[in-house]
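If you are new to this repository, start here. Below is one unmodified record pulled from the training split, so you can see the exact layout before writing a loader.
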Amino acid sequence: MSRNDDEQVLTYPIPNDAPLEPPAEWARLRQQCPVARVKLPSGDEASVVTRYDDVKQVLSDPRFPRRLDAADAARISATKSGGLFNSSMSSTIPDTGEEHQLWRRLVGKWFTAKRMASLRPGIEAMADRLIDEMVASGQPADLKAALGFPLPVWVICDLLGVPESDRDEFSHWSDSLLNLTRYTEEEVAAAHHAFTDYMAVHIDAKRAAPTDDLLSELIVATGADGYRMSDAELVATGRGLLLAGHETTANQIGKMVAMLLGDRRLWEQLLADRSLVRSAVEEALRLDASGGLGLPRYITEDTEVGGALVPRGTTMMCNMSAANRDERVFENPAEMELGRTPNVHLAFGTGAHSCLGQALARTELQAVLDVLLRRLPTLRLAVTVEELPKLEGLMVGGLREVPVRW
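And here is the target side for that same chain:
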């Protein structure tokens, strides 16, 4: 069986019907068209998979790299380079093989669940400070701008030993490199070069006067076979942490809180039983209806996915958000069940390229939710769920604002 070439080519990402609801097309694709043709923001064509098993298969296969620098790979954005996944700016760290595993093991030693949990008091203190400022500014307030957006970049800057005065620059660089439509090729390149120049100077300073942060540790860390990161790899690692750890978590904070406040019974359930915070975070990750592009893969040889023959040279978009609602895997997949367990969602990917920072993201989301429940138990949306403004043009999807009262 091959892909159905008569199938309608869908615009991708597929727009969702309402801010917190998935596109109706997801269910149809899972049932009828497991490998569908789509047109990316660049205008190039790719394929998308939406079933849980198919997404897991493609993401787990070491033959299929996540970088799209092959000559026949689809461009993601309409810029000349095609965006972050196509650009050479993402190619410093080896993408496959033993070299990638050496790098991953070296960085992964730092991102353990135990070590991330040790950061929680500091993260909660940051959240308390931001909530203080939000409350002082009066209501209604935009929870995303006041808390969701700044908190993750503060955390990343702390990990990299970046001073507080430079946090705004990091926020701008993250937005520039992840946006599909807002910035020109020249602006994206300028952001990339500015970040690279900053990090080069920052690494030299850390080497001369190390402090208690991840970057200082990675500068001197030695892995298997004596592997040490080059300065270029250190810069790329810092960029990866910023891009993977800022916008994704910032948007997830807003979406998570909106989901929980959109049905007041859920918020009240958490207030009554705070032990549900951990599983509630996992359920919010699973139910994310605006996960953006998902993760791309370049198919390096003819392969079968979901009963369809996918030819070599195909750019495959793995839609984890659609897969996380697969009826074959999750009972009552459209329902938010705060105590759902087990919850085998794919929000952080799977396989050799699953998100290294997932323990950090979970720690941030749990800390934010705990602090909000403690500080603002009467928190509520200041608009209807239908009025929540969607964020357009960003690889990770989300809400532009989350207006709240308390």
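Two things worth knowing about this chain: The beta strands are 10-11, 35-39, 45-49, 141-142, 295-298, 303-305, 308-310, 315-318, 380-381, 403-405. The two ends are 55 Å apart (CA to CA).
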